[in-house]
Design goal:
3 domains; binds molybdenum atom; Immunoglobulin-like; 5-stranded mixed β-sheet; binds the ligand Nc1nc2c(c(=O)[nH]1)N[C@H]1C(S)=C(S)[C@@H](COP(=O)(O)O)O[C@H]1N2; alpha+beta
Length: 489
């Protein structure tokens, strides 16, 4: 067989395998798609240093980058399977079988798939083997070229159909049917002058579209509200299970809360603020009857992610949230329900697609990131960021330096700015919304033309001023003063 044709048998067999798996997954749940399941397994098995490197290298594009990288590797293997089978189909068959079994293993070990999900990788394996052997046999025939093209076309159509069907698994319909979630207790309106968006800070409330997103989920869990429930168990007197209706029928509270990611570098973007509506975690836990000796709330997501929060903190503070900025949660931010706890970094508190609350101890259970090198206890560090001017920007006229500061749940008391290592000057603060939300600041300066470096530091209401020492995010959040160098013309 000619090398080009041999490589094509492998590539078309791969296409058919992926398409058959994806199309089957559209019916049994998209996470069962072997391609996505293998990528998910890769994410879970990746050492955390590499994951951190991938997040900083690819930013929020780490998922498309991973999926593209996998496609390239698979294509190379498929071509190799074809090329090693130029005389006999056996080597290629063996390679396909090995990859098929790996896909099967990746799917059945996922926490978020049902029993029928094995059908998807089995369809993949069967389609891959059948198409490979079929094309291999046909390769010598005069009609083989047409046969190859038709098979490839069928595979692409089946794959696209799977993607379309799977993507509209009706979570959007379920969201649209939720209707009004007006809270009984509304968050106070955001006062004017809470942000300096005109001077380059973010708006005080982040829109759902602009809200940062961090999670380990390659495919967003797509759970319909009516199929969702929250199980409260562990060290409680009365274990219970709440439905979405049970939660929405309670008195809903709305709070303006700033969410922060522990992996945010100094000056980084992983911080946003929204009005979250839900019920207080503490109320629900107290009704279940928390037993003495418990010190951790371990929350579990539909996709297997877990977060461990200090129990005393969540008894006082935090919501089981079902709405964000007046709308049901977007699927990427946890629909139908998630936790939001002011004062704790997201990885130890903010479980999206939450399905279980387990009252337990830190000794007995660990959240997802703890064995991966991150701290068990992770209160948010007092911090600040310069949003304007941008690094290496050119400004003219009077310079306004403006930014963001946060110290949930202590609140921000003061932000200072210094230029070129000179004396610290107090910045003007935006309106104080609440201690669980960020605070904006700005300062107007007369600077000589030339290059300048601005630095900022925040002091929280406990009197603590953020540390100058530059520390990486691992294990419990970055420290250091953000600095930006720019040129005045
Ligand atoms: N199910 C699930 N929930 C999760 C995570 C996750 O990986 N899976 N990541 C957490 C982390 S690290 C952060 S910072 C916040 C981010 O929430 P957001 O994506 O809505 O901004 O979600 C938390 N909840
Ligand atoms: Mo995070």
């Amino acid at each position: 067989m000619k090398p080009a044709k041999a490589a094509a048998t492998g590539l078309i067999a791969l296409l058919a395998a992926l398409a058959a798996g994806h199309l089957t997954a559209a019916f049994v749940g998209l996470p069962a798609s072997p391609y996505l399941a293998v990528a998910d397994a890769a994410v879970d098995l990746t050492p955390s240093w590499l994951k951190d490197a991938a997040i900083s290298a690819f930013g929020t594009y780490d998922k498309p980058a991973l999926l593209t990288g996998m496609a390239l590797v698979l294509a190379a293997v498929a071509a190799a399977a074809g090329l090693t089978s130029r005389t006999s189909p056996t080597p290629g068959t063996a390679i396909i079988a090995v990859f098929g079994v790996a896909g099967l293993a990746a799917v059945v070990t996922r926490p978020d798939v049902g029993q029928l999900s094995v059908l998807a990788p089995m369809a993949s394996l069967a389609a891959g083997l059948y198409v490979f052997r079929h094309l291999h046999r046909e390769a010598g025939e005069p009609t083989s070229r047409r046969d190859f093209l038709i098979t490839a076309g069928l595979a692409i159509t089946a794959g696209a159909a799977g993607q379309l069907l799977g993507a509209k698994t009706d979570v959007e319909a379920s969201r649209a049917a939720i209707g009004d979630l007006t809270p009984k207790t509304k968050a106070p309106p955001i006062p004017p002058m809470a942000d300096f968006a005109g001077n380059g800070t973010p708006t005080f409330i982040t829109s759902a579209n602009d809200f940062y997103r961090i999670d380990t989920a390659l495919t967003v869990p797509r759970i319909r509200a009516e199929n969702w429930s929250l199980r409260i168990h562990g060290m409680v007197d009365r274990p219970t299970t709440l439905s979405f209706e049970d939660i929405r029928r309670r008195d809903l509270t709305e709070e303006t809360i700033t969410l922060t990611c522990v992996s945010n570098e100094i000056g980084g973007p992983y911080i946003s603020t929204a009005n979250f509506t839900g019920v207080k975690i503490g109320d629900v836990l107290r009704e279940a009857g928390v037993q003495p000796g418990a010190d951790q709330l371990l929350s579990t997501s539909d996709d297997g992610f877990t977060a461990g929060s200090p129990l005393d903190h969540v008894l006082e503070n935090g919501l089981i949230a079902i709405a964000m900025n007046g709308e049901p949660l977007p699927a990427e931010h946890g629909f139908p329900a998630r936790l939001v706890v002011p004062g704790l970094y997201g990885y130890v508190s903010a479980t999206k697609w939450v399905t279980e609350l387990n009252v337990t101890t830190f000794e007995r259970e660990q959240g997802y990131w703890i064995p991966r090198g991150w701290a068990t206890r992770a209160p948010i560090k007092t911090s600040s960021r310069i949003d304007h001017p941008k690094r290496l920007a050119r400004t003219s006229g009077r310079t306004v330096v403006a930014g963001t500061a946060w110290a949930q749940p202590r609140g921000v008391l003061k932000v200072e700015v210094r230029i070129d290592g000179g004396p610290w000057q107090d910045a003007e603060l935006g309106a104080d919304v609440n201690d669980s939300a960020w605070r904006m600041w700005k300062i107007e300066l007369d600077l000589r033309p030339g290059s300048h470096t601005a630095e900022c530091r925040a002091t929280d209401k406990s009197g603590f001023t953020q540390d100058q020492a530059r520390l990486d995010p691992v294990p419990d959040g970055a420290t250091g003063w953000h600095s930006v160098t720019f040129t005045v013309e």
